Amino acid sequence: MLLKFLKRATPVRSAPVIPTGQRVYAIGDVHGRLDLLDRLLDTIEADDAGRSAAQTTYIFLGDLVDRGPDSAGVVERIRHLALAKSDVRLLSGNHEEIFLGAIGGDDKALRLFCRIGGRETAISYGIAAADYDVMDYAELAAALQRVVPEDHRLFLAAAADIEVIGGYAFVHAGVHPDRPLSEQRPSDLRWIRNPFLDHRNPLEKMIVHGHTVSPAIEFRPHRIGVDTGAYQSGRLSALGLEGDRSWHCDTL
């Protein structure tokens, strides 16, 4: 009977920790809401200044673009932030993957781009709404190639798929629970939902992710979800981490 109980027991992992002297702010899916991003960055800067000295890292969890009204402004704001601060890290979301594919003329990416909020992105880069509405896919790809600056493309293309700091792994969507972190596929890190969300036991790291919307930052035994649906809810959130402590900053 005891053996049967032990087989069913849930694995226990010690609380995740950020290394001493470091502080992390993980920012959820911005989706074109430059107004919220500016407010959140002001809040984070004030929060950081009010704490003890530390090496502070900003991690953007991906999906900067689409749906909201100013994707171009969001990319430019974060690109400049990365130039001004020594430790700003960007992760690639599924929307960045689609956006770059659409610019490159990939038919599947162009179809998806038009379905998931790409119209707003195209308009933010200067394509007239009336022109967008009558373009075919080839014309749209050519227009995106004209209007999206090369430094924006290079910045998004250079985004990582995963960042590991101490006991945490930061990704856009999640991880496949049946694979070690070293063997994760980009498609899972950018797109996964149910196999990851339905998992109940601890993983080798605490996973901090965006991609799946919740009303507030969501804490689970194996994951922390930071996407609070900014483009619709008006709440853009950041998770603060230092040592074994966590807190949040947001725009509501």
Based on the model shown, name its key terms.
single chain; about 250 residues; alpha/beta; Purple Acid Phosphatase, chain A, domain 2; 5-stranded mixed beta sheet; about 40% helix; globular
Helix content: 25-40%
* Cα end-to-end separation: 51 Å
CATH level-1 class: Alpha Beta
User: What is the helix tally?
Assistant: 12
Strand content: 15-25%
Radius of gyration, taken over Cα atoms and rounded to an integer in Å = 19 Å
Order of helices and strands: HEHEHEHHHHHHEEHHEEEHEE
Taken from the alpha-carbon principal axes, the silhouette is: globular
* Main beta-sheet strand count, sense and barrel state: 5 strands, mixed
Which architecture would the CATH scheme give at its second level? 4-Layer Sandwich
Give the rounded overall mean pLDDT: 95
Strand order of the largest sheet: 3-2-1-9-10
- Which regions are unreliable across 5 or more consecutive residues at pLDDT < 50? 1-12
Number of distinct beta strands: 10
CATH topology, anyone?
Purple Acid Phosphatase, chain A, domain 2
Question: Could you describe the 3D structure shown?
Answer:
The structure is a single chain. The longest helix is centred in the N-terminal third of the chain and has 16 residues, at about 35-50. Helix 2 links the parallel strand 1 (about 20-25) and strand 2. It is globular, with a radius of gyration of 19 Å. A five-stranded mixed β-sheet has the order 3-2-1-9-10. A five-stranded mixed β-sheet has the order 4-5-6-8-7, with no helix packed on it. The N and C termini lie far apart (about 50 Å). It is an alpha/beta fold and about 250 residues long. It has a single domain, classed as 4-Layer Sandwich (Purple Acid Phosphatase, chain A, domain 2). Residues about 1-10 have low confidence and may be disordered. It contains twelve helices and ten strands.
